[in-house]
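Teaching note: in complex prediction, the entire set of molecules is handled at once rather than each chain in isolation. The prompt given to students was simply: 'Predict the structure of this complex.' The entities are:
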Amino acid sequence: MDSSFASEMAGLFLEEVEDQLHIMEQEILRLERDGASDETVQNLFRAAHTLKGSSAVMGFDEMKRLTHEMEHVLDQVRNRRLGVSTKLVDLLFQCLDHLRTLKEQFMAGSGIFVEIGAIVHELRNYAFGSEDQPERPKEAAIGEAVLCMEDPETWAKVRNAQDQGFSVYDIQVRLVPDCPMKSVRAWMIGHRLRSLGEMLLTHPPGLEELEDAEENGTVFDEESWPSELRYLLACQTTALHVEETLLTISDVAGVRVTPFPVWQREGAPVSAAAAPAVGAPAGAAPADGSAAGGASGASAHEGTGAANGGGAGAVPAAEKRKARTIRVDVERLEHLMNLVGELVIDQTRIHQVGSVLHHLYAADETVDELVQVSDHLARVIGELQESVMKVRMLPIDQLFSRFPRMVRDLAQSLNKEIDLVIEGRETELDRTVIEEIGDPLIHLIRNAIDHGIEPAEERKRKGKPAKGRLRIAAAHEENQVVITVEDDGAGIDVDKIKHSALRKGLISEEELKKLSDPEALRLIFLPGFSTASSVTDISGRGVGMDIVRAHIEKLSGVIDIDSRPGEGTRFTIKLPLTLAIITGLLIRLSDRMFVVPMSSVMEIVRVPPEAIQTIKGDAVVVIREQVVPVVWLHDVFRIPRMRETKRQLPIIVVGTADKRMALVVDELVGNQEIVVKSLGSYVGKINGISGATILGDGQVALILEVGGIGRWREMRAGRAS
Amino acid sequence: MASLGREQYVEVVIGKERYALKIYDIHEIIKMQPVTEIPNSKPHVKGVINLRGKIVPIVSLRHRFGLPEEPYTKSTRIVVVNHADEMVGIVVDRVNRVVTFSDIQPPPERVGSVHGSYFSGIGTTDDGLVSILKLDQILSE
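The expected output is the structure of the full assembly:
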């Protein structure tokens, strides 16, 4: 039980980390694009803060350390002590990458190998380096003086504690300026801290000997007591815990707990950059307050306190809003979906039995009732199915939000300027589809940036805006989701495509002559095709457009391409909303039932047998003045063709705009919602069949995969010629 | 009870031969069902059936054992076994009984015309020898 609880905790933690990293990425991008706004910085700060908290709870020290430093820098930005620069954005992106890697390693359970020392150091340098010098307060100097600690004895203590696995914290406590009996408070704080661990150092010195001091009659002068106290504590709790403990003491205005860096053995810690960096947090907070003193000091303190409180208070508020949603394991949803699938099937069977009974006993009231109940059941199940489907639907933003960062990095590495436009983020589709469509989309985007959009100088020469435009959009269209990836780059040179296909022997010269331009463009989807004259790191990884097409066909989707030289290229992907339940067209071949996914059906026609002609050995039919190749499904599945005695042959036209096939079947049975089931890994991949479904009468019907049938036709045509 | 503690097997008949399957591997035994053929699949895969809402592939061992396919009879059964986390149905001519073996010998090079690697051993019962099927092997490609 314990371990399962732990793993559940870890699961929750990882989800939270994922969420927060996601937010961070969004906000950093916004920061880069729009500059620093209060909201952006606040969101970033909050994300870092949340991560710090949860990683501390999980005992995930590296992440806690890094987020703590981030939080610190962001706090400075928030308080306008630091400006936003490209360097900061880059630094934050680096942090993000580090956090990602940390998360992955945590997930893999392989132990942590990321070295965060360097990035932490950079963050500190940044915080220190850009800080406004004049504002660096006198008190910080005192703090440094204290903690620079040339006293080797203290050093030995710190190192000793760290070696033994204790965390050493640099704790700063600010008292309310008009706090009466500061010495008593100081003593209480010291006392509380000592209950947590071992006190290594205090400032003012001798805080811990207060009792003795009082006994000795040496009374501290209350007036001269600083309102800022500093401690060096070695303990085994988290910084957060220390902070919380101290905040429960009254008259404490603020607490700052900084993990003391783990020093290299050989390094004397007085290196110019590192030592003041420790002092820096001290400098920042009490600066205005203590310098001004009195009433204005108090208000300044309250100000910082409120800012801190605001940060902490805003988090629960956000959580309150979130409380209306719950996280559910995907497995459970899948199970629910399966059960609903069973219900759909059973309901269809009940309906059939009902109508049979109705025919047999037309006058029977009980049968009538059965039919009514069955109808009602059908409605309820229909709604249930819809609701469950909706639960599985996610906004495509889940995927799209990964692109801005990717595009930014790509554009930077290729030295191109790109304006990314994302539309239709809220478009919902099945989570399995979202998972599967990621890779093909990334491939298309990489292609567009690498090969499509030209470098800025070239664009200017051509009279285009220097910034290339990449548009990624999603929208619902009837029962499908349409995703477009569009660039305003160089476009695809059809002649180059033709030439390349010919050279690679993918097509004969004769065939080439027959191809229209749009058809020729589609050649890039053939296996073994790649026009990139130079292989680059970005898109020349041996993954061609044929893989993209295969991916999309696996999802029962279609991909189309449209390109104009000099103007750009547009890829259009059409996908079914969900893969679990689809509308299928039931057909009969001989005595067997098959299902054609409605998403690939373009139209259904009936033609007389003599309308099917043969051109150069290929059967074709002319539909709406277009020549469409004909495929007898019987041949594909090795089922004997029925005698063509019928006066009209039912024909299903499937495919995409410029790549159609006419499938000849024996009988069209009708439309039906079907639950897609896999044939299982034992049967494996069968060309032309994507899965199976269970019909109302309990029979199993196979689902056709139009892409596979297309390949079968091409193969056979290739063999014939 | 002499059989106590000994492993139990289910004895099935294919053609004229008796074979045994570990009872532990068997999910259930059902009567012959309408099988939906899968075109262009492996020759020994007869097709799939609907087992209470699950799609289960059906395998014939006749092809593997070099026997001609024969029409199904009233005694034809599908033995549904668990194989690599999936269910697979094996068509047999008849299911006889549950048996235990007093002795199990390693399989010979060949059992009749069938290669010995398809068997994990030859079991001795009170009325003769029964070849014990090695599931992984007979269900593999």
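Point out the following to students. Residues 35 and 139 of chain B are 18 Å apart (CA to CA). Chain B touches chain A through 23 residues (CB under 8 Å).
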